[in-house]
Amino acid sequence: MRFGCPIISVKDHNVSRTFYEKVLRQKVTLDLGVNIAFGNEFSVFAIQADYGGLIGVNDFNIAYKSNDHELYFEEDNFDEIVKHLEQFDDIIYLHTTKEYLWGQRVIRFYDPDFHIIEVAESMESVFKKFQKQGMSIDEVAQRTQHPIEFVKKYIS
Which end of the chain has fewer CB within 10 Å, C or N? Predict the structure, then answer.
């Protein structure tokens, strides 16, 4: 058995499709009308309208803005994506850019159906940023809380 992809319930697949294509620059890989898949060689997710009907439950049992999960995206050019997001006046942010102890910057906001979206600076970018600041591989591993062998895969 292999995992397929996460599917999130949306109220309007056209509104959500526009959001994921324009705001998050995702590419549609399959459009089945009420079910639309996005992805690349690294990850895939799908949106599903009429989710209650699909699984056989009343729409009142579909929870939006549950704040119990998120879709996580990574970006190598974090500053550029933050600037890109600023052009969308209707984004509701959970928080603007913050940096965690391990050096990774993230921003979180809601999609049109109030699913949490996290856009994070890729860890590869974080590793390289610290290396450019003069840190050794050991220091980068310690600072980012990642195993040395993992860090070595991304920086030399």
Answer: N
The DSSP bridge partners found for residue 10 are 49
Rounded to the nearest 10°, the torsion over CA 117, 123, 129, 132 is: -170
| Residue the block writes with tokens 């860890």 | 123
End-to-end CA distance of the chain: 36
Question: Is residue 42 pLDDT above 80, yes or no?
Answer: no
Identify the helix (H) or strand (E) that includes residue 81: helix 78-85
In this predicted structure, the answer to whether residue 58 has a pLDDT above a threshold of 90 is no
- Scored b (16 or more CB within 10 A) or e, 85-124 reads beeeeebeeeeeeeeeeebbbbbbbbbbbebbbebbbbbe
Residues 59-66: contacts with CB within 8 Å, 24+ apart? 62/9, 64/9, 64/11, 64/113, 64/114, 64/115, 65/110, 65/114
Report the C-alpha gap between 156 and 123 in whole angstroms: 15
